[in-house]
């Protein structure tokens, strides 16, 4: 039954503007003051639990009546009335024609807001929530649709917000909520709210989810309700900088702290969260310093004292055989992102006397940095096709936790397609190796392809793919591929290695096998970054410096968070060695979750990264150059992995 046109006390209901589980909202005219208002109505006889709904409605009225803040939607009036023999309860509030923050984003077609705009919104929202918390009131439903907009004509890009909808708010320490129903919006609910133990820190968590969404375009967790609950309870969110290059490492630190699973590990108050957010987006970021060395210091190594801005000194160890232009990253020795928070890095660029490429600076310079992939350039168009003869990779023995797996190789060569792959079978205590590939023709042609691709790299590609700040050194972009074009001739194509609109698919269709999809070119010292989604199954990963005969380094990243780096020094498989192995929460394990894999290889130094975080550092100088491969591992389930946006920087 529509109430449009009905009179409710001295208000005339014009038309319905919204409805939900807690009632309906009408645009109405105040006949006394001659203004438009919004009236929220519940029909008491239609609710499934009249007593509980009435209590919630009355508690919302009680909560709002105690609040008086410029960023909280106020209460004008409330009461009960009978219309057409129907008993109604209502509350009257200001009407905001601009709608909610959610509506505003949709109208503007904005997916990612600038950090300074998000900081403005977070500051106002936190002030409103702090006001409520000081009165022992927990909102419990902080999200974009519960912030109404108030546009400012002088600064339309910086809208004011009004916190609304206290329908499921509760007073801290009260036991008035007798219903065992979990209330809230799943995408924004912290772990303790799923367990019916909300605290003021719960609102901070929900505001951090909102800030995350405003920065990257979506909340960190999604799926069916039980999946979302599991992610809130157990899974770490992906750092927002990996999804938006404009998000700094400092903002990552602030948001991820506010999204801690335990309330006591978040900021002491929502206001301190907002203050840290404001400081972090304004923070200068990593400190970049050019450090002058003598030739002897560069050759033998040295320990130097470095003076930072503010006259603070740190000590830096210069490794032997350093070269002009080398960079050393000193983590968490820079300036704090926010008060008492983690520090940025200090980046030392070495200048060897007598070999200057650029004049040394007399003062340290500061600039903002981001650990995120940069904005993508136009698709790279290679000029050299993949040669018809391809090397075959062989997987050597693996050691998994509590399980020693020795792997036999199965060679497959598809000559008509000009591609090949290796399927490796895992056996206990033996390895049978079959290798029948010649790489000489590929070596010559691939070298030419690499030289041609480097020459074809434009200034646009360089500017759009800046070297990741989370990696050491400073490489030059030489390769970018979105990995959606089957004609780009940079990766093998077969039944288990193929292109689609969403990226390059690597598949393993036999239990205890893995498949290797190889690149056209070889690389020596380089940094590699690629985005990976495990669509189904067990593990993906990278093969580095493959010599064409199965000798390589294998970086394996699994859906359960397990990772490893294994090197294979010969074709017997008897001398394999696990260089790194462990389990990390930095790998997003939800099905279809996006993970950014990174690999740094310079001389003997091998460093693994995932989502901007360092997994480990190993040293081995056995393999100096080789092909890159993308992998799909199957240990328990058929596996399919999608790769996107591959980038290579060389030194």
Automatic annotation (TrEMBL):
It holds the Pfam family Pkinase. ATP binds at residue 40. The keyword NADP does not apply. SUPFAM superfamilies: HSP40/DnaJ peptide-binding domain, Protein kinase-like (PK-like). GO terms for molecular function: ATP binding; protein serine/threonine kinase activity; unfolded protein binding. The keyword Transmembrane helix applies. Keywords: ATP-binding, Kinase, Membrane, Nucleotide-binding, Transferase, Transmembrane, Transmembrane helix. Residues 11-291 form the Protein kinase domain. The chain crosses the membrane at residues 405-426. Gene3D superfamilies: Exo-inulinase, domain 1 (2.60.120.560), Phosphorylase Kinase, domain 1 (3.30.200.20), Transferase(Phosphotransferase) domain 1 (1.10.510.10), Urease metallochaperone UreE, N-terminal domain (2.60.260.20). Residues 359-393 are annotated as: Disordered. Residues 375-390 have a biased composition (Pro residues). SMART domains: S_TKc (SM00220). GO terms for biological process: protein folding. This is Protein kinase domain-containing protein. It comes from Ktedonosporobacter rubrisoli.
